[in-house]
Amino acid sequence: AQVLTGPALAAGIGFCTTLGAAFSFLAPLIRTEAEQRFHSPHAGPLVLAAFSLLCATLLWALRNRRADVSKQDAEIAG
User: Fold this and answer.
1) Minimal CA–CA distance to 35: which of 46, 23, 49?
2) Any stretches that span the bilayer, and where are they (predicted)?
């Protein structure tokens, strides 16, 4: 089933593109800051990897929550 269509789909794509552009600008700054704070050239990529894993975990949790809410709505509707 399609979740978004028409203008909502365009807005969603635009939002994702904006986030991608913002974080492609911020990632080198975050990497450099981590390397300087931890005094290690490995810290930057590790911090970015940890942030990516955190985001993936949040998306997974939101998806599961949405499925649970849909099941509850179906039970209420009868």
Assistant:
1) 46
2) 7-30, 42-62
3-state helix, strand, coil in the chain (%, to 5): 85, 0, 15
Number of domains in the chain: 1
- State which amino acid sits at residue 43: A
How do residues 35-78 score in pLDDT, each as one tens digit? 999 999 999 999 999 999 998 999 888 887 766 666 666 677 76
State the CB neighbour count (10 A cutoff) for residue 48: 16
Q: How many CA atoms lie within 13 A of 52 on its CB side?
A: 11
Assigned token pair, 20: 């991608």
Q: Does residue 47 form part of some domain?
A: yes
* Cβ 5 vs Cβ 15: under 8 Å: no
